[in-house]
Description:
Layout: H1 3-27, H2 33-69
Amino acid sequence: MGFLARIGAGFRRTGSFFGEVMSELKKVRWPNRKELTTYTVVVLVTVVIMAVFFWLIDLGISRLIDLILR
């Protein structure tokens, strides 16, 4: 197989790949506005809870290290 033939085969595979991607995207069930809002709120609340949790853990560990080093 020559160099140009391999390049052409690569372009055909790329085109086939994007065609399959578009086919799969048509099968996706996209969330409606209410679901999207609910999911966004859940993610934001979870992130805030985890941030506070790790902040408290970090604060506790740093205080413990301060006590040990004194």
